[in-house]
Amino acid sequence: MDISYGKSIAETLFNLYKNNDTNMVNMGDIFAMIDNSGVRRSDPRLSTFLGKITENFGQPAGEDLNSFISNLNADEETFYKLLDDNLVLLYQIIRNDVVIPDWASFTEQVTEMFNKCKTNQGGEVASYIPQLAAYDPDLWGMSICTIDGQRFSLGDVNTKFTIQSCSKPFTYAICLSELGNEGVHKYIGQEPSGRNFNDLSLDPSNKPHNPMLNAGAIMSSALILQNILPREGVAAKYEFLLKYMTRMAGNEVIGFNNSVFLSERENAYRNFAMAYYMQENKCFPEGTDIHDCLDLYFQSCSLEVTSESLSVLGATLANGGICPITGENVLNPCAVRDTLSLMYSCGMYNYSGQFAFKVGLPAKSGVSGCVLLVIPNVMAISLWSPPIDSIGNSVRALQFCEELVNVYSFHRFENLNNLVTQKIDPRRQSYEEKTHGSLTLFFAAITGDVSSLNRHHLQGVDMTICDYDGRTALHLAAAEGRMHAVKFLLETCRVPPSPQDRWGHTPQEEAFRFKHDEVGRFFDNHLK
Ligand code: GLU
């Protein structure tokens, strides 16, 4: 970063937080501010900051880090030295320039939803292999990771479980990132199949229907083996997958459950049948060894995650391929876009159509009871509870997704013109968006476009908003002599009739000044 710019940020922070009597900043206050934003103290992006603190002040052995920090005070010079490498993130946090600015209200509401779903006793734990059947049906965890690395977790979020079919979007995204669109779509289709996830069928051009079903995911494994790393041994190919997943998970828990792997392989008659069927139909890249290919598929299903790490994996998708907590660009953004499209249409087994309709977000579900929900450009939510319904989706997770979009306007089509919604939008509004809203409102007022004014009004736009000169839509409509627009603003929107611009002019004065006497007189009824 430019040194003088960095210095001025650090100065601003110092002045904002310093104690005027001691001229020192308490580091506990800085960390409290970080905590409130939802970013964790343990976030890898803050590791240099933390490291410098312990190094600089010498943390006594055995003392808890948090209480150690709350007693630390830094003078100006030390403060600059400590912050140096993490200024950008800290400055972002201080300005509360994060995708969900009111983190406290958001997490409070989400907690209510989580607790509501906890009482749901529907569904059965998957029992096709003993390792899955052994899970306690009461387990229920939920983790959120936003594109700015804001984190929130509730329930059983550190218990490991196998990722199962939630691996499918990731193996597909890896293939797309490495081989490009054509290299993948020669072998895998993009169409919902309308059939069971493990159905023995191919699309009309003899390709697996899509990569979210078993056949398509077995093909993703074949592409990793045969087209991405053709010359490596199988161990190197597995390591390649594991490393990729670990990078997407920001180095959080990605393990491997060998018992599940062995059990999956032992009970995989259907997957073997599918692979042979694809071989018979010459679907695979030349030279594919279907046993290696199935092994890699079972291995990808047997990767172990926690609800926490799964949320980071998902947030990398939500963030266009950049892992939010490490800042590493792991996946090509076009690959992510294509993966999300198929999660949207095919990610929830035979419930995918209804899920897209009701929840309106890309998601993927796995037989271990996990669901990964992605809100593009906002966050990922991982949900895990072993009891699943007859279609294969976790019952509590499904309920949670529906509760979420009943409260928040996250459904992809919730923002349509003319759609009046009472739902909450917790996302930060960008300057551009706000400015765009006011610009279109002002144009509607200038041109007297009452139906556009009406649309703004219905969408909850603040009709009293003013520009830099203090001029409101009412000023503009009056100055242009737009009687219907003035009437609409005064009588339907009930905006205050005499706001003053920076020169002290009211809308009525503007109407007379530009010789729109009828409009000017109309104000008289509203100014009594
Ligand atoms: N290992 C499972 C299979 O291939 C994955 C099932 C799933 O999560 O959909 O049958």
Task: Explain this structure.
This protein has 528 residues and is an alpha+beta fold. The protein folds into 3 domains: 3-94, Recoverin, domain 1; 108-407, Beta-lactamase, CATH 3.40.710; 431-526, Alpha Horseshoe (Serine Threonine Protein Phosphatase 5, Tetratricopeptide repeat), CATH 1.25.40.20. 50% of the residues lie in helices and 8% in strands. The chain contains 24 helices and 13 strands. The protein has helices spanning 3-17, 27-37, 47-57, 65-70, 76-83, 87-94, 103-118, 130-133, 168-185, 214-228, 234-248, 258-266, 269-280, 290-301, 307-318, 333-346, 352-358, 395-407, 431-447, 450-458, 473-479, 483-492, 507-513, 517-522, and strands spanning 18-19, 24-26, 73-74, 124-125, 141-146, 151-155, 161-162, 255-256, 303-305, 363-365, 370-375, 379-384, 387-388. The strands form 4 sheets. Strands 6-5-12-11-10 form a 5-stranded antiparallel beta sheet, with helices on both faces. Strands 1-2-3 form a 3-stranded antiparallel beta sheet. The longest helix has 18 residues, at 168-185. It is globular, with a radius of gyration of 28 Å. The protein starts with a helix and ends in a 6-residue tail after the last helix. The site of glutamic acid has 10 residues, from loops.
